[in-house]
Design a protein that fits this description.
seven-stranded mixed β-sheet; globular; five-stranded parallel β-sheet; alpha/beta; 3 domains; Enolase-like, domain 1; FAD/NAD(P)-binding domain
Length: 462
């Protein structure tokens, strides 16, 4: 039996970051994962490979449809899918190898296999082949992430009905791809394959796609995706798939969507399968998430849980912050997380990003707000970069001017949202944001102008 100060189960962004921070603080750490490569879903089959595909497919679209307008003559532009997938795989391999190198440098013991509790402070790790080994620790962190939700009438088969794990590695571009679910994952992967030549239809049960964003943002975002060729069907309840046709219902009327491939992207579920939580005394809540307190402690002494297995947005950066805080709490330090300021991003082109309260949510709660908007169409860098679609919205308290939230539709929105998060972290006002110097010409000037627009003081707009 090997003994440690901390065992982390799951080597995704939450798990490995927790392990790294704990090692920095002098703890003896073991990091367990069933994959041979570290990085979890995010690095292996999620965030990273999908972003590599998004970037490559954007280059393909630029070369085919926009290069000539910039004076770049390319001749015939053709897709080499194997090369594109190799590029994606190379990106994944580089990052997972980097995480392994960092773990080794921090003297973290990496154990490959499936972990299961045998007691609150003991786990058995069973490798793909060979004997199991037992590890014990004063503290154990569960960081096993999430898995795609499977619909009972649309079981994954890896070919015609697939999850996001499969949709990053199609060996041919689907002719007709139907995406079930209009959230970030479905729209991102739908965009990739649409750019590469697939006829893509997105079928969403709710009245709008990316339902957590304001109606005006979603309305404009939907229009831009449709302009790119994606078909968007909302208020549609999927009922089945047979003989190459996906069926759905809307207000009692039957809908049919031809599809040689169906991507089911209706969300993710906490992954706690086979962990033996009952043997540790770890309880779940009504949504099958692990119960934790305000410091991410479970119902079992010395057992903690972070990331997708607990309440909150299932986002890698949220999991990372959970992991750092837990490592610091275990080491007796003052860990900190502000769960109200976790930004969300849809990495299409244009991107959608948001943090805090949206305009619609604020009004629904009866909070009086002032809203500042600034269009990228009036931003010099955006005009030069063919990135004029979209705008920045800043939502501020009507009495105090404190920034309550922001939503951005536009190129690089995921990068731009970070400075709003920073201002919100210290309780900054829209005026603080508007009076912060921004370099010219940059897309970020639109954020500054939106801050000024809250008080109707935007310089480059009426």
């Amino acid at each position: 039996m090997s003994s440690f100060d901390l065992i982390v189960i799951g080597a995704g962004p939450g798990g490995y970051v927790c392990a790294f921070r704990a090692a920095q603080l002098g703890l003896k750490v073991a990091l367990i994962d069933k994959r041979a490569t570290l990085g979890g879903t995010c690095l292996n089959v999620g965030c990273i490979p999908s972003k590599a595909l998004l970037h490559s497919s954007e280059q393909f679209v630029f070369a085919k449809g926009h290069a000539a307008a910039h004076g770049i003559k390319l001749g015939s532009v053709e897709l080499d899918l194997p090369a594109l997938l190799k590029k994606k795989n190379d990106v994944v391999a580089k990052l997972t190898a980097g995480v392994a190198q960092l773990a080794k440098a921090r003297k973290i013991t990496v154990v490959t296999g499936s972990a299961a509790f045998t007691a609150a402070n003991t786990v058995a790790v069973t490798p793909a082949s060979g004997a199991a080994q037992t590890l014990t620790a004063k503290n154990i962190v569960i960081a096993t992430g999430s898995a795609p939700v499977e619909l009972p009438f649309l079981k994954f088969n890896g070919t015609s009905v697939v999850s996001s794990d499969d949709a990053i590695s199609f060996n041919a571009v689907p002719k007709k791809l139907v995406v079930v679910g209009g959230g970030a994952i479905g729209l991102e992967l739908g965009s990739v394959w649409s750019r590469l030549g697939a006829d893509v239809t997105v079928v969403e049960f709710l009245p709008k796609i990316v339902a957590n964003y304001d109606d005006d943002i979603v309305r404009n975002f939907t229009r831009l995706l449709q302009k790119q060729g994606l078909k968007i069907e909302v208020n549609a309840k999927v009922t089945g798939y047979a003989n190459g046709v996906l069926t759905a219902e809307r207000e009692g009327k039957k809908l049919e969507f031809p599809a040689d491939t169906v991507l089911v992207a209706v969300g993710r579920r906490p992954y706690t399968d086979g962990l033996g939580l009952d043997k540790a005394g770890v309880q779940l809540d009504e949504k099958k998430r692990i119960k934790v307190d305000a410091h991410l402690k479970t119902t079992a002494p010395g057992v903690w849980a972070i990331g997708d297995v607990v309440a909150g947005p299932m986002l890698a950066h949220k999991a990372e912050e959970d992991g750092v805080a837990v490592a610091e709490w275990i080491a007796g330090k003052a860990g900190h997380i502000n769960w109200d300021l976790v930004p969300g991003i849809v990495y299409t082109d244009p991107e959608v990003a948001g943090v805090g309260l949206g305009e619609d949510a604020a009004k629904a709660k009866g909070i009086a707000v002032n809203v500042g908007r600034f269009n990228f169409a009036a931003n010099g860098r955006a005009i030069a970069a063919d990135a004029t679609d979209g705008y920045v919205k800043i939502i501020a308290d009507a009495k105090t001017d404190k920034i309550l939230g922001a939503q951005i539709l536009g190129r690089g929105a995921g990068e731009l949202i970070s400075e709003v998060v920073t201002h919100m972290e210290y309780g900054g006002s829209a005026e603080d944001l508007g009076r912060t110097i921004h370099a010219h010409p940059t897309m970020s000037e639109a954020v500054k102008e939106a801050g000024l627009a809250v008080s109707k003081s935007a310089i480059h707009a009426l």
